[in-house]
Design a protein that fits this description.
9 helices, Nucleotidyltransferase, domain 5, alpha/beta, 5-stranded mixed β-sheet
Length: 268
Amino acid sequence: MKPVKIGIDAGGTLLKMVYGEKGRFHYKTFSTHELQALTGWLNITIPVASIALTGGRSASLKKDYFPDASIISEFEANCEGAAFLMKGAGIWKDPYLLINIGTGTSIYMNKGTSYSRLLGSGIGGGTFMGLGKLLTGVNDFAELVSLAAKGDNKETDLLVKDIYFPSKPPIGGSLTASNFGKSKLNENVSNEDKMSSLTNMIAETIVLLSMQAAALHQVHDLVYIGGTLKSNNLLKSRLEHYTRMLNLSPNFLPNGEYSGAVGAFMSL
């Protein structure tokens, strides 16, 4: 059997894998709790492979499961992988900010073939999972995403118009005055509404940080990637809404959540 190349992004919540076959990329995602399933699937399906790892858990994954694998820095893998996917999707921008929403969030400056990490935040997918568990008792990413999609953050968030009612507010009334600020006034907040509010808070925080970086570096295009965006249409729509509100251009890559895994694959 011809050896196959595999790139794996081992994050704190999800394991994203990319492998090439007949000139095409194939994508798979596993929970970090499914390591045995991943290794079992690889041993059966792709027994002969060259593997490159990236992400926070890459060292432990190499030690325990893939001793012959190479390790690529997460910074390099994300930027190189995202650039490759952008060109393939025909949405190349230059310059642009790359916002990787993984367990936390990292913001990179990309210009031409050079890139640098500007800043980061502890607000990201780990926040979504951790606070989601505390708020709802649910510990499954897909289920939390589904709850958020069915909720209404206006039942939980205190808006500017709520504070000024019945007077006309001096700024946009739909803006958030306090995330979760209405919860104390509404004892019947549903899990769906809680998750909608949490998603909104994460989106607002990330966009506000990105806006400051964009203003400092005079960049108009923001490219969002990361595992937290996987099937998370509400988070994408909130990011797009707030980004456009600030007169910046939001971009979402097809399969962008696999940027790190693609970058690792490309190193082989």
